[in-house]
Amino acid sequence: MRRYGKNPDEDDIRVRPNRKGNRPRTHIRPKHEDASDGMVLTVDRGRLTVLVDDRIVMAMKARELGRKAAVVGDRVSLVGDLSGKKDTLARIVRISPRTSVLRRTADDDDPYERVVVANADQLAIVTALADPEPRTRLIDRCIVAAYDGGLTPLLVLTKSDLASADKILETYSTLDMPYVVTSREEFTDGAELARVHEVLDGKITAFVGHSGVGKTTLVNALVPEEQRRSTGHVNAVTGRGRHTTVSALALPLAGCGGWVVDTPGVRSFGLHHVDPSRVILAFPDLVPGTEGCPRACSHDEADCALDAWVAEGHADPQRLYSLRRLLATRERREDD
Ligand SMILES: Nc1nc2c(ncn2[C@@H]2O[C@H](COP(=O)(O)OP(=O)(O)OP(=O)(O)O)[C@@H](O)[C@H]2O)c(=O)[nH]1
Ligand SMILES: [Zn+2]
């Protein structure tokens, strides 16, 4: 299982060096062998809802977890009252290692990187084909965040009644990404929804998308009726230039084992934390060409060995172009 370090939210609890030679405190504490496992569905200021078997349990983090935060999608172990009854509160005593992490970087008033969603299999990048116009740089940023965190990017192109998907699909053809093209009218048609379910069923998919792209409309067509949200929020509610609170929400897909994790806004997907060596892993055809690169090569510099390697015909030059375009998005401002 891959682990992603660096982030205070993710680090395992460290046991302090024990100068006095007595047993470390963590060993004296009960080991919670009776703990039950669950998945975090929502987080709201320290209060979490966790799915345990088929019950929704309210919980908070046990103090022994220290700074480590549980986020939506985390697999956790809990003790205490797991009945799910009103006014009960369980304690989260363990957070399992994550298989993937969707991170956002810091905005101005928040200097830390945060994990937004843990353990998602894929990142659905929801983009309207028109109204609002597709923004490829924003799509690129999301793709990089996905590659960096170990999620498979998935293009979800909405409002196909308004414009054709050909141009966007052409732009991303060298990345070999899965995609679906949808429109609201077609959701009433069983075949259209079946196609969307095909790419989502049995998986945990985090959804990101700029406001107004039709994310809520789409998510509502996929989740059970009682979980639906109202659509058509006016952007002015949050006010331009302000960041909405980052708190994701896991919703079950109707009729299958999968989950949709809805995330508010992508404005805050800063990419300063991204490591080029993780992004290139998404280009396995180019990886052998990096053997001649200088140490810690950004793969976007004069000494990079990839230019010569591609020129020798080992890989498609378009693939190198795509890699460089993605790597360059790290340096740009989000609203660029
Ligand atoms: N023409 C067309 N309009 C759509 C489609 N899907 C959604 N819309 C409209 O686009 C607007 C935004 O839809 P939402 O689903 O609220 O979009 P959102 O991405 O959740 O936006 P926020 O709620 O602002 O985050 C609404 O007025 C919808 O009715 C579609 O397939 N075609
Ligand atoms: Zn290089």
From TrEMBL:
Zn(2+) binds at C293, C297, H299, C304. SUPFAM superfamilies: P-loop containing nucleoside triphosphate hydrolases. CDD domains: YjeQ_EngC. InterPro entries: G_CP_dom, P-loop_NTPase, Ribosome_biogen_GTPase_RsgA, RsgA_GTPase_dom. Monomer. Associates with 30S ribosomal subunit, binds 16S rRNA. Belongs to the TRAFAC class YlqF/YawG GTPase family. RsgA subfamily. One of several proteins that assist in the late maturation steps of the functional core of the 30S ribosomal subunit. Helps release RbfA from mature subunits. May play a role in the assembly of ribosomal proteins into the subunit. Circularly permuted GTPase that catalyzes slow GTP hydrolysis, GTPase activity is stimulated by the 30S ribosomal subunit. HAMAP family: GTPase_RsgA (MF_01820). This is Small ribosomal subunit biogenesis GTPase RsgA. The lineage of its organism: Bacteria, Bacillati, Actinomycetota, Actinomycetes, Kitasatosporales.
